[in-house]
Design the sequence.
C-alpha cells in the first residue's frame, strides 16, 4: 500500500474502506479486517434492528444426530479449555469431505499433528482445518454444515 505525501502512514485509505464495505454487502459478513504489517483496518456493520419479536413455535426442533454422537453442541462451550481447537475463520463447518460421507474424525479417535479434522467453507473456499498437535478427540462442539464464528470451539484434543 503506498501513501501519498499528504497522507500519514496511519491515515485510513477511504477507497480501501469503501471496497471492504462493499465486500461486506456482497458476502453477507458482519465484519472484515484487513492488515498490512502493523496497520489494520476493520470494517463492521451492526445487525438491522427487528421491528417485532416473533414467539418461537411450541414444538422443539429435531435434534442433530451428528451432534448427539459427538457430544453436546453449545456455542462457545469449551473455547477456553486447554486443547480446544478454535475456528480460525468465520464460515460453515463440514465434518466430512462431502455430504453423506463419514466425518474425518469422531470422538475417541486418535489424531496426528497436521491431520485434517474438518473443513470450513468461507466465501466459496474450502479451508482444511488440521490438528495443531497429536492427541485424542474428546469433544466435537460443532455439527455438520453448521455456521461457526471466529474463535469458537470446534473440537477438544486431549
Sequence:
Amino acid at each position: 500500500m503506498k501513501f501519498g505525501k499528504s497522507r500519514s502512514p496511519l491515515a485510513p485509505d477511504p477507497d480501501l474502506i469503501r471496497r471492504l464495505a462493499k465486500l461486506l454487502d456482497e458476502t453477507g459478513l458482519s465484519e472484515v479486517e484487513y492488515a498490512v504489517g502493523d496497520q489494520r483496518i476493520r470494517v463492521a456493520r451492526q445487525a438491522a434492528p427487528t421491528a417485532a419479536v416473533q414467539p418461537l413455535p411450541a414444538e422443539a426442533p429435531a435434534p442433530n444426530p451428528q451432534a448427539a454422537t459427538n457430544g453436546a453442541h453449545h456455542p462457545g462451550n469449551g473455547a477456553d479449555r486447554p486443547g480446544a481447537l478454535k475456528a480460525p475463520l468465520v464460515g460453515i463447518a463440514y465434518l466430512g469431505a462431502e455430504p453423506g460421507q463419514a466425518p474425518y474424525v469422531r470422538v475417541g479417535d486418535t489424531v496426528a499433528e497436521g491431520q485434517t479434522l474438518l473443513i470450513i467453507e468461507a466465501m466459496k473456499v474450502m479451508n482444511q482445518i488440521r490438528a495443531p498437535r497429536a492427541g485424542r478427540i474428546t469433544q466435537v462442539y460443532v455439527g455438520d454444515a453448521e455456521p461457526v464464528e471466529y474463535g469458537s470451539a470446534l473440537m477438544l484434543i486431549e
Summary: Residues 1-7, 49-53, 58-76 have pLDDT under 50 and may be disordered. The longest strand covers residues 116-122.
